[in-house]
Structure formats: structure tokens, C-alpha cells
Amino acid sequence: MKTILFVCTGNSCRSVMAAELFKKILGDKLAKVHVLSAGVGTIVGMRASEYTLKVLQKDGIDAIDHRSTPVTKKLLEESDLVIVMERFHKHRILEIAPHVKDKVYLLREFQKAPDEIIEPEILDPIGRPLEVYERSVDLIKEGLKDLFSWIKKEGWI
């Protein structure tokens, strides 16, 4: 079984959205891929933000039981692929575990023409209006479609 770790800052918005949406995309193939989320600047046990729950509910996903997990060296080493939302997350991960550099990617790097992407990072919506969360979830969904294609091509599923 392969493990994909989605990472953001607080593990209350973007990484939660990405992990939950990717689980839904995987559907019955979820038995072959373990999907986790964590944050580079969080503490254990925080809930997903109110607007994160709201945008996920639009896709039929209930993440009310989510609790934040901090990124650790062990978690990074046990993951086959680490997907981050911002370059800052990648830099922080490489401070913790420099040897995992070959498996850390921005989510939007999986899109078909990553050099043409105007917004390569998915910025933090925390504390912003619902519309910002909706924009974040749209960008995440775009990246997840291409990530799904990539893991299929790689034979993970």
C-alpha cells in the first residue's frame, strides 16, 4: 500500500480539503492508497475550520471528526509522496527531513502544463471569506485530478 501525505500550515484547511477530496476521488481504490494530512505549523487535535467543513459538505464530505496532526520526520519517511500547498511547506519539510526531497511536490506541479500555471501555490484561506475557501477548493480539485492520473500511470492503483 502506498501513502500520500497532504501538507499545509495548520492542517485545518487546505490539506484537509485535499485529503478528503482525494479519498473521494479514489473511491474503491482507497484500499490501495493510504491518504493522510498534516501541518507544518500546527498542534495535535485542532478541528477543521468552519469554512473547510462547509466547502467539503458541498461535495458530500463530512470532515467534522478531523483533528490536526503535526508533520514529523517519521510521518515524512513513512509517506511515499508528500504533497504541499506552498513552497514554504516544502522548505519546512526539508528542514525536518532533507533526505525526503525526491518525494515532495507542490500539488499544482502535477497539472499537465505546470510552467503555465499562474498560481502555482494554493494560498492559505484561514480567516478569509467563504469565497476564498471556494477558490482554494477549486484549485485543489484541479491538482487532484492530475495527481490521480499520475498515480494511475505509476501503477499505484
UniProtKB/TrEMBL annotation:
InterPro entries, per database record: LMW_PTPase (IPR050438), Ptyr_pPase (IPR023485), Ptyr_pPase_sf (IPR036196), Tyr_phospatase_low_mol_wt (IPR017867)
Highest taxon of the lineage: Bacteria
Residues annotated as domain Phosphotyrosine protein phosphatase I: 2-150
EC number(s) per entry: 3.1.3.48
Assigned keywords, A-Z: Hydrolase, Protein phosphatase
SMART domains: LMWPc
Membrane-spanning ranges: none
Keyword Repeat in record: no
Catalyzed reactions per annotation: O-phospho-L-tyrosyl-[protein] + H2O = L-tyrosyl-[protein] + phosphate
Record Pfam families: LMWPc (PF01451)
Active site per database record: C8 (nucleophile), R14, D124 (proton donor)
Residue ranges the record marks as coiled coil: none
Keyword Protein transport assigned: no
Family listed: Belongs to the low molecular weight phosphotyrosine protein phosphatase family.
Protein name from the UniProt record: protein-tyrosine-phosphatase
Organism, scientific name: Candidatus Taenaricola geysiri
